[in-house]
Amino acid sequence: MGLAAVMRDILYIDSICSRTGFKALVEFDSDGCTLDDGVPVNLWEAFFSQAPTVGTVLSDEKSTVVVSPINARGLYEVELMKRLHHNCSDYLFYGSGERGREYRETMRKIFAKYCVIRQDILVGYNQEYETLKTFSSGKKILGVLMREEFSEEVLGQIDDEFHQNILSYHPRVPNVKNFIESTGRMAVENGITKIFVSSLYEKTLDAFREQFGAENVYYIKRKRLTSYKDHCNTDLYKDNVEYEDMFNGRVKLNEDILYERTYSYLMDLYLLSRCDSFLSPICGGGFIAPLLRETEYDCIKYMDQYNENCAFKRGD
């Protein structure tokens, strides 16, 4: 699981507890989740301002402890006491109308309690946002979140069967071509010409620039992959590695580059939250970006593997 998924699940657990009378306590610094891991480092406090809140699982039978280190295999542990039963059917993706707005407002309050981005991190993010505003020349911006590694297009290029199996747990996302087509339709429908793209791949940015013009496509400066073949074969490691070796902690990860990638992804989410409209696959980042803003987008569209769906506009 990734950074945004951790934040999303913290929100879910707090929301569940508030409806059932349980108490949610979030532990941000847990060695138990990292010691035997391929990524034995917890970056939560590098990006968020909270100090550790809970050292142990309390004896109170009406307590829930959410343990959430960032960027670790088995990224979080959730211990629910035996008498807690829930059916979490409230999904932000399908929340149009008044019910959806109320739900997102509730989630924003929970988010503000647990996921407070550090001020020194926000300085850099806001500087990038000023650059984005200059780029847009006052015109409205469509934010597009890409998670290509979960598309059939990219999965078909990964030879590592173990890696394919791991990625298969994530909902499928549209191929790049489908996303570009939906971006074009959404831009026309909302009178938008400027596009901010969040992507780990140079090939994706090339495709957006070719379709919409380099003068209309913005993206942050960061290290990106040049191939869709396998996003595990990167400079996170000294050499190309088998995904299973990484997953099981048999290779050492470059912590500086891990920080850079996490910093860049969180910046992408922050900038997506500042756009006027938003197009996203069904993923943790698509959940979190709307919660980083205080008001509703003009328009949101979420896409599954094949279709644009869950579209709603301000006022719907």
The proportion of residues forming helix, as a percent range, comes to 25-40%
Classified by CATH, the class of the largest domain is Alpha Beta
Based on secondary structure, the structural category is alpha/beta
**What does the main sheet amount to?**
6 strands, mixed
Morphology: globular
Strand order of the largest sheet: 6-5-4-7-8-9
Explained architecture:
The chain contains eleven helices and nine strands. It has a six-stranded mixed β-sheet, sandwiched between helices. With 316 residues, it is of the alpha/beta class. The chain folds into two domains: 87 residues, no CATH class; 196 residues, 3-Layer(aba) Sandwich (Rossmann fold), CATH 3.40.50.
What's this model, at a glance?
This protein has 316 residues and is of the alpha/beta class. It is built from 11 helices and 9 strands.
Descriptive tags:
single chain, 316 residues, alpha/beta, Rossmann fold, 2 domains, 6-stranded mixed beta sheet, 9 strands, disordered C terminus
Produce the secondary structure layout:
Layout: H1 3-20, E1 23-27, H2 44-47, E2 63-67, E3 77-79, H3 97-114, H4 119-136, E4 141-145, H5 152-155, H6 161-167, H7 176-189, E5 194-198, H8 202-212, E6 217-218, H9 243-247, H10 255-274, E7 277-281, H11 284-288, E8 299-303, E9 308-313
Parallel strand pairs: 1-2, 4-5, 4-7, 5-6, 7-8
Antiparallel strand pairs: 2-3, 8-9
Helix pairs in contact: 1-3, 4-10, 7-8
